[in-house]
Amino acid sequence: MKDMINILPENVANQIAAGEVVQRPASIVKELLENSIDAKATEIKVLVKDAGKTIIQIIDNGIGMSKRDASICFDRHATSKISNAKDLFNIRTKGFRGEALASIAAISHVNLISKRHGIELATEIAVNGSEVKSIKSTVSEAGTKISVKNIFFNIPARRNFLKSNNVEFRHVINEFIRVSLAHPEIKFIFYNDDEEIYSLPISNFKKRIINLFGSKTSEKLVPVSENTEILKIDGFIFKPKYSKKTRGEQFFFVNNRFVKSAYLNHAINSAFEGLIDSKYNPSYFLNLEVDPSSIDINIHPTKTEIKFEDEHSIYAILRASVKHSLGQYSITPVLDFDRDKSLDIPYDFEKKSKSTTVGIDINTNYNPFEKNEVTEKFISIDSFNKKMESLEFSSETNEMKEFNFDDLSSISNSNNSIQINKKFIVNNIKTGLIIINQERAHQRILYEKFLKSVTLSKINSQKLLHPHEIEFSKPDIKILNSRKDILNQFGLDFDLGDDKIIINAIPSFIDSANMSQSFNELIHNIKNDVPDESFSESDFISKIISKSLSIKNGKSLKVKEQQYIINSLFACKETMICPFNNRTFVKIDFSEIENMFK
Fold first, then answer.
1. Residue 520 in contact with residue 244, Cβ under 8 Å?
2. What is the mean pLDDT of residues 275-300?
3. What is the pTM of this model?
4. Helix, coil or strand: residue 317
């Protein structure tokens, strides 16, 4: 039998490694920006074309590289950041693995020009798919200019997986915002298709937030500051009334590095508990400074995940600090008699020892045989909820039972529907039960209504007595501008400014009291949903508006509202799936229910 294990060729190994670091153009922007920051740049320019698919160019005034350093920087694991394993536990730079440039060069055409300060000539290197094509001297200013062209030119399958320019541009902008927020001491300029999108001067953290998210952001901010032996916190949260249904403006930076952490996010949500609806999300911009030796950032190729040595203390300090700020600025009462006193640790943490004693609370009046109404309800309803959640509402299932629409004659004349878990509407039919996902069903209802109305040009606008202004970022303004004509057809009449829109008229299906929320959800959904190229623009916008305005899961519905959803859904041309190809309802036959009790 022949040997089966072979060593991969270097070019194949490089492409595999590149797949971990470079998922899309935004990955390249992030890695190159971080290299410029590590090079102590005070000014960085970013230029992209076709959302980075054609070219990404980063120009900085950092320390630059010598000819020798420039010639080996594209080799795998070539790094100036660490020299031994111990350095991995005291990382203070953005990059350290020596994978970024090697990975980028493996799947693109790269041109690098770099010059040290005080040196007469720069070094220019051209690399195509990890192969060095040329090295020569040239004239250039001090610093580094790197151009990355034709991403995934040698991996067409990967290139085909890239999304539309709008989607890829959104990812690029997100990475740019994260890096520029973490470093207000650096000037950043961003160009897209030769149009200047951002020009961010050197500033402090608050001004950088305002420069990125608009001048009116200033009135929304509440400062958060805390300093303990374990953790130093500095930054801002939004006042509760500015919370959103989306999670756009949530930023954690640990030692000036953007990180994603559901655990830390839960601490913030816990601090806002009782101040905002559970369906809304607080916005925050928080810098956390910890001892580098107490964290591990080497657990993911993109280095956006992090592991804390003492995560429970971090959680408690963060939560208490945010609650303290909300109380200090008269957003929540300072005297909180229901608070957990164990979470007050930040304000005398330095005086306490790190050892703790675990206590156990015992209810001496507890009677295990006493009926508990709350427990009984929880058990009965929760078990049913689990059954509902386990039913297949996913579009991935190929099997979908044929529905006998003759069964519906019993629905239209009955008001015996019930709502379960503020998500499902349950109604009986002749042969069993139907269980409807209320949000998906309402999306289908609205989608068909909007698509029909815009096709027949029957959507009318209501002119506002006073024009209404909403502030948006420049990238959001750009997206709205690209969709302005089709949005006008839906009755949305608005003018665009540099960082705001002025609404002149709205269609009848938008409540004037919720204009800001509706537009925020609309722009969020436009950015996050990819239009199907086989359908029209009006079809795409009909889907997006139906998603933005539909009744959401989590909303309590009266019986009449439940019946409206049921009857309107089954009056649609397509009843079984929502506009996004997910099931709207499932059916359980009485025979299936009988079998559950056998």
1. yes
2. 81
3. 0.67
4. helix
Buried b (16+ CB within 10 A) or exposed e, 410-426: ebeeeeebebeeebbbb
Contact 271/326 with Cβ under 8 angstroms?
Answer: yes
The whole-angstrom separation of Cα 325 and Cα 328 is 5
Query: In the predicted model, is pLDDT for residue 408 greater than 90?
Result: no
| Residue 338 reports pLDDT greater than 50 | no
- Tell whether 195 and 217 lie within a shared domain: no
Single-letter residue type at 447: Y
Q: Which of 581, 585, 588, 559 is nearest to 437 (CA)?
A: 585
Would you say 230 and 317 are in contact if contact means Cβ atoms under 8 Å apart?
Answer: yes
Q: Which residue has the tokens 């059954």?
A: 387
DSSP string, 382-440: HHHHHHHHHS---TT--------GGGGGGTTT----EEETTTEEEEEETTEEEEEEHHH
Q: Which residue has the tokens 């004239």?
A: 139
As a whole number of angstroms, the distance between CA 231 and CA 218 comes to 26
Are the beta carbons of 29 and 46 closer than 8 angstroms? yes
Kind plus residue range of the DSSP H or E element containing 91: none
pLDDT tens-digit readout, 84-94: 445 445 555 55
Residues 150 and 262 both lie in one domain:
no
Residue pair 501/480 in contact (Cβ under 8 Å)? The answer is yes
Q: Is the Cβ–Cβ distance between 143 and 59 less than 8 Å?
A: yes
Give the residues across from 296 on adjacent strands: 307
> 591 lies in which domain range?
395-598
pLDDT for the residue numbered 108 = 92
Looking at 179, 202, 225, which one is the last position of a domain?
202
Instruction: Tell me the HSE value of 124 on the side-chain side, using a 13 A CA sphere.
Output: 10
